[in-house]
Amino acid sequence: MNVIIISLIVLGVTGLVAAVLLYIVAQKFKVEEDPRIDQVQEVLPGANCGGCGFAGCRALAEACVKATSLDGLLCPVGGAPTMAKVGEILGLAPVEAAPKVAVVRCNGTCEARPRTSEYNGAPSCQIMHNLYVGESACPFGCLGCGDCVAACTFGALSMDPETGLPVVDDEKCTSCGQCVKACPRHIIELRNKGPKSRRMVVLCVNKDKGAPARKACLNACIGCGKCQTVCEFDAITVENNLAYIDFNKCRLCRKCEDACPTHAIHAVNFPKRKEEQV
Amino acid sequence: MSTFRIGGVHPHDNKVYSAHQPITACPLPKNAIIPLVQHIGAPAQPIVEKGDKVRVGQLIAKAGGFVSANVHAPFSGIITKIDTFVDGWGMRTPAIFMDVEGDLWDDTIDRTPDIVHEFMLDPKEIIDRITAAGIVGLGGACFPTHVKLLPPPGKTAEVLVVNGVECEPYLTCDHQLMLEHSEEIVIGIQILMRALGIKRAIIGIEKNKPDAIAKMQALCSRLLGIQVLPLDLKYPQGGEKQLIDACIGRQVPSGALPIEVGAVVDNVATVYAVYEAVQKRKPLISRVMTVTGKSVAQPGNYEVRFGTPLTDVVALAGGIPEDTGKIISGGLLMGRAMNNIDMPANKRVSGLLFMSENESRRVEPENCIRCAKCVSACPMGLEPYLLSRQSELQLWDEMEAHAVMDCIECGCCQFTCPSHRPLLDYVRMGKAKVGGIIRARQAAAK
């Protein structure tokens, strides 16, 4: 009986001393943290995709709390509504940003781009890219192993088995930019989504001269410059045998689409034209 | 018989097809494309212009830096343009294009067949001649030879290790070179020993080449300091770090160069090129390459001038066999499968292997069963199963911590894997990524 009482007292006193010590230490070395960081983090989507340029949502929340203006701080996943909420918590004015979407700038479908070899190695674009030109003769085009699909945390990308190219789901894409980083050939670009998701895009990144580009792929941009001539808004530049449409200047007149001899320029999400409907 | 201590595998050597085939010179082509990048390092800078007439052996492109190599005209003719061409892997590469008119040699080059035994040059002159001749390591990596001969301050060479191992299956060009030009190789070794100021050289030859061992031994028996060392068969014995371990029993520390343990390694083909450059003033304009495979009509060893289209060399060997599924430039394990063979021969192409359709197809990979066969096979003592997984998961920092930069990309791990996992594919990708990160860090530190 005695033994039990003694052990109870010893343990009880030890526990009490430890509790007091711990309390003092906790008070002494308390880390002061802005409670707003937690609040901001609560509003953020919590995907930790890194699309904002910070290491996860917590880091963005810390950056937002420290910042004096929300300029340059954008959660691409949550977009404007999330940033408005963040602004509310911090008492800062949200900065308007045009919604963006990932665009795969390659239209080298199986039909347009004849396969010249068969790849039998590990299914990774990066490995294939380090080894050689890829299964087609285009050294710039999509390799089709789906590194971008694997990188997308939102399920917005999928491979189209018919064309062998990745397809972006505009609804699901949050423009976090993970696919842009994953693509070894830098084909994917974040572009303005455009009004009603309508946009003009050059679906090619081939910088070769016309003849070899065309030989490698029927849909390649050959750098002829016709689109540049026809554009009234100075939106198109042709550099290194490749046309590029500046989405800030483009007014969606669709003239370049008609001018392009290889149909490298695409009008996305436009209603069908009258003559096409017939 | 000695060999290296860590790892290694025993693939079938398949050298019967082209072994003992005499070295045949490939006829001159009509047009030639001479790549400016035939070595590791900066591309060479062209010093000729369109319309220039050049002679064989004339310098046409200067080394673009210390780690770079000169390029000489392999034919006489007219330069037609300086442009890019699509290489065997579909990538655009800068090159000098020329119309071949004949075989008019530069006057300074000694073309007599006599073997020149005497050399009176001092080390600096020897290294100057090697630099001028654009000699690179012909074993596969194409590292400029003059860089190896100038050890960094504080380091001294003690022994020259000559690589006559040819551990790659199928390849026989070095073997044949040792049989046909053994005397020149021995003189070349003496020249290199003089250039490095050392008294000891070891020629490592695998025991599947007994005739080459006998021939070299007979020549070296009366020479002081040069020893011929027969080695047990094991791949990758031709890797320089493995060869140093096998020949002198020293292990090169992680991340260091062979000079750290006092060794300089050169391939027999490189040594032969050194002989020709120093004794005959002949720059590196040709090499011996093996064209082989199970179904090749006339597999053999061909002396090919750089710039000759590979299609010409293949035609000499009886054309592309019908059942070809894969063409590999270089050896079976370290070579690269090619996209097309419409490219010129150059310092890098040591062989062309034609693999049949069923030989070349990979087996569907299965899950890793943690048998650690790759760990015991890795000649660098790495853990390939772990590195490949880290690479898949993009854990670059951890890969660096696990010494991925030590990987020599020999392919033993993939060769030995019972689950046929593409280990090397992923490790190589990770190595490239980690290498980029390290270079970026160094650049930032500067």
Fold and architecture overview:
The complex is a heterodimer of chains A (278) and B (446). With 278 residues, chain A is an alpha+beta fold. Chain A has two domains: 36-90, 3-methyladenine DNA Glycosylase II, Chain A, domain 3 (Orthogonal Bundle); 100-270, Alpha-Beta Plaits, CATH 3.30.70. Chain A is 35% helix and 12% strand. Chain A contains eleven helices and eight strands. Chain A has helices at residues 2-28, 35-43, 57-66, 79-90, 125-131, 147-151, 178-182, 210-216, 226-230, 255-259, 274-277, and strands at 100-104, 157-160, 165-168, 188-192, 199-202, 236-239, 242-245, 265-268. In chain A, strand 2 and strand 3 form a beta hairpin. In chain A, helix 2 packs antiparallel against helix 4. The termini of chain A are far apart. The model of chain A has no long low-confidence stretch (mean pLDDT 89). Chain B is α/β, with parallel strands linked by helices and 446 residues long. Chain B folds into three domains: 29-109 and 283-358, no CATH class; 123-279, Rossmann fold (3-Layer(aba) Sandwich), CATH 3.40.50; 373-445, no CATH class. Chain B is built from 14 helices and 17 strands. Chain B has helices at 123-132, 145-149, 173-180, 182-196, 210-220, 240-248, 268-279, 310-316, 357-360, 373-377, 384-392, 396-401, 412-416, 423-445; strands spanning 24-25, 31-35, 45-46, 53-54, 59-62, 71-72, 76-86, 92-102, 159-163, 201-206, 226-231, 263-267, 286-293, 300-305, 324-329, 336-337, 351-356. In chain B, strands 1-14-13-17-15-16 form a six-stranded mixed β-sheet. In chain B, strands 2-8-7-4 form a four-stranded antiparallel β-sheet, with no helix packed on it. The radius of gyration of chain B is 21 Å and the shape is globular. The model of chain B has no long low-confidence stretch (mean pLDDT 93). At the A-B interface, helix 5 of A face strand 16 and helix 14 of B.
